[in-house]
């Protein structure tokens, strides 16, 4: 080859030609590899974010469902329906006009604050029952974030609401609001009022609630666990769901997560559209169509704004809800690190040509070794070995720039690993107290009940609720309330022994597991010490308003041997402690 060319020219020409070919080939492969890695990294990140949002929403809906069942079965709710129903009947045939006049038209409080009225002072049995039960349901709605709570009798009469909007005292079967999704929730439960049945509507605009997007969660109420006497309905605003979907951490400048309903309308606001988009903005994309049909995946497509995005999508199903959940980020942002890489690579090829012309073979040898080293580093990074040292990054040629790009890949991989760990921790731990959440303690309890045998020592499940916590929040402020919760969590943790467990399941409610008890009575001794410890310890945080503890206890195997029965037994015992005198424990 090139027999007629002198060696003094041929050798530099061959070396330069092969060096250029090698540089160009390496650059193209590196570009392709970098682009693939960036896209793979973005895909993994989007899927992790999508799973995190989906898990948070499922936990939220499941928590509301559990709360609905607990309160539908509580003696407080049952007695409220019975007494208010009797008082309703005493009002005669003009219940709607009478009650709406007393609690809406003549209510001295402004629109949106009608729930502040405790007693209409008309001397009726209804107002007496309202005075007795209204604080309980009003506090329940405020503490758990429900917009409104409804008690409806079997014939569709709305006996009670917290908010006292225009639907109060109307009939859901033939009244003004019979065609709303509130009426649909009642009707679906009323058709099958068996214990454990529930129905959840999709979010729709609800005229009595300022035409805001609301959903209704309904379940039957039974007397003595058998006789169907009415329906408990929670009105759920969309603000919590929207706040979960609006978290921008890890989404970059152009990323977002959105929910789409079966009507292809948004169930959460977009970061990039002005105003309210919920039930307004339409998303008719391939990802939305696939997710609504039950398919999950990741693909490039044009989004609802016409932008080229990488979209991760999945169906979101909970009871009657059939939504699509989508996480997406613009393609340009994903590949933006490549622009610097390409510019640096082009400059390095040009500079390398000049240097190779001067030093020839020695330069080729000098380049081959670091490229091989970086290839090994790339493979190690691809295998998630993130503690490697990229030692060639100080070079100023194309190899150095490739190493800098490799540092970007390493940094992205570290950030992804850190984010996944943070998301996993956030999904299973309470951010205020650092305690595990309901899911972790439920899993722990299920494992314990499944493996329990009569040769084992008894163990206890305790439901704990802080008395007067709402008063502390309202009077002293949420910052003091947060300190109370953190102090209570510390007291609980200090009381734990090896293999014991404590979790915060919401608001001022905690669940404790005490294992390896010598005898069932030891659980009561532990509980009594906890009651004293809380009363004493929280005086340092809330000196003006005493915060005490109501504690319900269930012991396995004496009280029950399965998870559901133990939780129900402990919860009912806690309510008995509340009703007895508070600042005590009950079994």
UniProtKB/TrEMBL annotation:
Start and end residues of each GGDEF domain: 457-587
TM ranges: 340-364
Entry-linked InterPro entries: DGC-Regulatory_Protein, GGDEF_dom, HAMP_dom, Nucleotide_cyclase, Rev_trsase/Diguanyl_cyclase
Gene Ontology terms: cellular component: membrane
Keywords per UniProt: Membrane, Nucleotidyltransferase, Transferase, Transmembrane, Transmembrane helix
PROSITE patterns with a match to the protein in the record: GGDEF (PS50887), HAMP (PS50885)
Protein name per Swiss-Prot or TrEMBL: Putative diguanylate cyclase YcdT
Source organism (scientific name): Grimontia celer
């Amino acid at each position: 080859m090139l027999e007629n060319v002198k060696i003094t020219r041929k050798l530099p020409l061959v070396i330069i030609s092969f060096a250029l070919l090698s540089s160009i080939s390496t650059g193209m492969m590196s570009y392709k590899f970098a682009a693939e890695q960036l896209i793979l990294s973005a895909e993994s990140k989007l899927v992790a974010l999508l799973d995190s949002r989906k898990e948070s929403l499922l936990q939220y809906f499941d928590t509301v469902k559990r709360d609905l069942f607990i309160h539908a079965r509580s003696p407080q709710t049952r007695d409220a329906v019975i007494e208010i129903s009797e008082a309703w009947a005493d009002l005669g045939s003009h219940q709607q006009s009478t009650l709406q006049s007393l609690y809406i038209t003549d209510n001295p409080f402004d629109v949106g604050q009608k729930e502040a009225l405790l007693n209409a002072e008309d001397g009726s049995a209804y107002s007496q029952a309202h005075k007795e039960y209204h604080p309980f349901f009003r506090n329940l709605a405020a503490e758990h974030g429900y917009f409104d709570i409804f008690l409806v009798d079997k014939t569709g009469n709305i006996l009670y609401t917290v908010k006292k909007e225009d639907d109060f005292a109307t009939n859901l079967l033939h009244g003004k609001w019979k065609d709303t999704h509130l009426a649909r929730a009642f009707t679906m439960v009323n058709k099958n009022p068996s214990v454990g049945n529930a129905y959840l509507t999709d979010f729709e605009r609800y005229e009595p609630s300022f035409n805001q997007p609301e959903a209704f969660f309904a379940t039957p109420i039974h007397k003595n666990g058998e006789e169907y006497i009415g329906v408990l309905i929670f009105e759920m605003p969309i603000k919590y769901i929207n706040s979960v979907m609006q978290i921008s951490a890890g989404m970059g400048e152009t990323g977002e997560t959105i929910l789409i309903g079966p009507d292809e309308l948004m169930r959460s606001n977009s970061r990039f559209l002005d105003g309210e988009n919920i039930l307004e903005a339409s998303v008719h994309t391939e990802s939305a169509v696939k997710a609504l049909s039950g398919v999950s995946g990741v693909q490039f497509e044009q989004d609802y704004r016409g932008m080229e995005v990488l979209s991760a999508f999945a169906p979101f199903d909970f009871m009657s809800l059939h939504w699509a959940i989508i996480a997406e980020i613009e393609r340009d942002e994903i590949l933006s690190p490549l622009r610097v890489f390409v510019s640096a690579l082009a400059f390095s090829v040009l500079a390398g040509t000049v240097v190779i012309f001067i030093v020839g073979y020695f330069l080729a040898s000098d380049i081959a070794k670091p490229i091989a080293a970086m290839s090994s580093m790339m493979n190690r990074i691809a295998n998630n070995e993130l503690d490697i040292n990229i030692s060639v990054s100080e070079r100023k040629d194309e190899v150095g720039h490739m190493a800098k790009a490799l540092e970007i890949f390493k940094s992205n991989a570290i950030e992804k690993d850190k984010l996944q760990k943070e998301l996993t921790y956030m999904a299973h731990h309470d951010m205020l107290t650092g305690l595990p959440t309901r899911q972790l303690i439920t899993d722990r309890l299920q494992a314990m009940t499944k493996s329990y045998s009569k040769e084992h020592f008894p163990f206890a499940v305790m439901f704990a609720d802080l008395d007067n916590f709402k008063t502390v929040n309202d009077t002293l402020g949420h910052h003091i309330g947060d300190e109370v919760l953190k102090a209570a969590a510390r007291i609980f943790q200090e009381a734990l022994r090896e293999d014991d467990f404590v979790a915060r399941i919401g608001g001022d409610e905690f669940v404790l597991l005490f294992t390896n008890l010598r005898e069932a009575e030891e659980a009561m001794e532990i509980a009594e010490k906890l009651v004293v410890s809380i009363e004493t310890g929280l005086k340092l945080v809330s000196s003006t308003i005493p915060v005490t503890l109501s504690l319900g206890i269930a012991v396995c195997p004496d009280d029950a041997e399965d998870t559901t029965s133990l939780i129900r037994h402990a919860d009912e015992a806690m309510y008995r402690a509340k009703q007895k005198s508070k600042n005590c424990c009950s079994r």
